[in-house]
Design goal:
Blueprint (H helix, E strand, L loop, with lengths): L4 E8 L5 E8 L6 H11 L19 E4 L2 E4 L5 H4 L4 E5 L6 E3 L2 E2 L2 H11 L19 H7 L9 H5 L1 H5 L6 H11 L7 H9 L12 H5 L6 H17 L3
């Protein structure tokens, strides 16, 4: 009996690279990360890719699978294989280092630009008491689970045509700080988020929301920033 196989096409090189096809065994409950690992171990030992936890916690294994950014450790082959073929590329909107590995520097720089937390209390003060039922806390909690995997950044069309755009993850982070009672710099964060390349550039396509592996809605967070920034403007803040 012939063992079932799948054809996996992986990107090799940088921007001027090419796809390389490998036929590997198809296994039960096989993830795309398993398939990439099989290629690296059995066919292309010099294949470059990233992973760490393998269980959907770190986000480092994010790649483009059949044209869509995903966590490869949580994506099962049988759900995405198109006629027994899977195409794996590095994430979009990020410089390619080699093969399936991207340079995340710009992504993290933008995130840090609006994501710096400045507390209202000193190091020696007791922890602030936060009303978990308040509207602001609920808004922050709804967006706080981002792990910086850059899937939303890769899915965003605005980032593709406007490299200065901060991107969904950075603005989602700004939204959590803008609603955190412990943040002394909330108004500064909102101003930065409204500046050049900020939330005003978002076209509300919702691609970030559809792609987010943990079900966050950066689109909603960005809309909230726009509302708060308008209130600051009207209030002279």
């Amino acid at each position: 009996m012939t063992e079932p196989t799948i054809d996996i096409r992986v990107w090799r090189g940088t921007d001027q690279g090419h796809f390389e096809s490998h036929r590997i065994p198809a296994r039960e409950n096989q993830t795309v990360l398993d398939a990439v690992t099989e290629v690296q171990r059995s066919h292309a030992p010099d294949l470059a890719y990233r992973f760490a936890c393998r269980v959907g916690v770190c986000g480092s294994c994010a790649m483009t699978v059949n044209g869509r950014p995903r966590w490869t450790c949580r994506t099962h082959v049988k759900r995405v294989a198109d006629a027994g073929v899977i195409t794996v590329e590095p994430l979009r909107n990020l410089p390619r280092i080699r093969d399936l590995v991207c340079d995340m520097s710009d992504f993290f720089e933008k995130w840090g630009r609006v994501g710096t937390f400045e507390g209202t209390e000193s190091r020696d003060a007791r922890p602030a008491r936060i009303d978990a039922s308040s509207r602001e806390r609920r808004a922050a909690d709804a967006a706080v689970q981002c792990i910086n995997c850059a899937v939303c950044y890769a899915a965003c069309d605005v980032v593709s045509w406007d490299p200065s755009y901060l991107g969904p993850a950075a603005l989602n982070r700004a939204w959590t700080l803008a609603n955190d009672a412990r943040a002394a710099n909330a108004k500064t964060v909102r101003r930065e988020a409204l500046g050049a390349g900020g939330c005003g550039s978002c076209h509300s396509h919702g691609a970030c929301m559809a792609a987010c592996p943990v079900g966050l809605s950066p689109t909603r967070s960005i809309a909230g920033l726009k509302r708060q920034s308008l209130l600051d403007l009207l209030g002279g803040g």
